């Protein structure tokens, strides 16, 4: 595993939430996963990969498949990229089991989403995240995405959770930069944009980088954006932000996994289709994705 540059960048600066390749019969395709991981790191310039996240169709992969995928990606790129395993569920006991499994499978860190559907109170979130962080020796990135989970992690809760030695980062898809800037100022938590288009605004309030979806295609440009900003060239960072905005937003015209897989297949990277309840991109959706990529210079 590559060493973290500093506590503000515990997993690097640009990570992609990797899709999970499936074979023509719908089975997990580990060889394709290794090829995709290598492409994302070596050609798209990612510092790390998140596997078994939402974009990785974690709701429809089995626990055994999740473990196999972690091992395959670590074997492929674990010597030169951070491999962060998604383990979050709506069940604390199951999440703890997945955390232990991910650690034994070689993951470098864990991504833990807010428990969804049951909408627990903040006191429940505190206990949930601490239980997962206590389960292994791996660093944890919390995933705050209330429009999917139904429950935000409130500012005071995040500040309290920052006291845990293994809770080191947040993938922030809440869309409240004021709250984010306060937490960044008052804690040592590293904040990663959970929405591609917010990468530059997040950096501007002290953020660390992005866990992206369009970075399957825009990784190099996004890395250049982050590098320009950190070098003090805000004008160049803004230029790159504007250039990449068509794909930062276009990748979410429908569910991101659907368009990423369509775009990768269109480029000759065989990743298979999606599992129900997702459905593959239509011809019109693929045509629009091509236009969005062209508009972004990709």
Describe the structure.
This protein is 47% helix and 12% strand. The chain has 12 helices and 8 strands. It has helices spanning 30-43, 63-77, 92-104, 122-135, 146-149, 155-161, 177-186, 199-204, 215-230, 234-250, 256-266, 283-295; strands spanning 14-17, 48-51, 82-86, 109-113, 140-144, 167-172, 190-193, 209-212. Helix 3 (92-104) runs parallel beside helix 4.
What portion of residues is helical?
40-55%
Q: What's the rounded overall pLDDT mean?
A: 97
Which descriptor suits the 3D outline? globular
Derived structural class: alpha/beta
What is the N-to-C order of secondary-structure elements (H for helix, E for strand)?
A: EHEHEHEHEHHEHEHEHHHH
Secondary structure: number of strands: 8
Report the uncertain regions: none
Strand order of the largest sheet: 1-2-3-4-5-6-7-8
Distance between the termini: 30 Å
Beta content: 5-15%
Largest sheet: 8 strands, parallel, barrel
DSSP summary: helix tally: 12
As a whole number of angstroms, the C-alpha radius of gyration is 18 Å
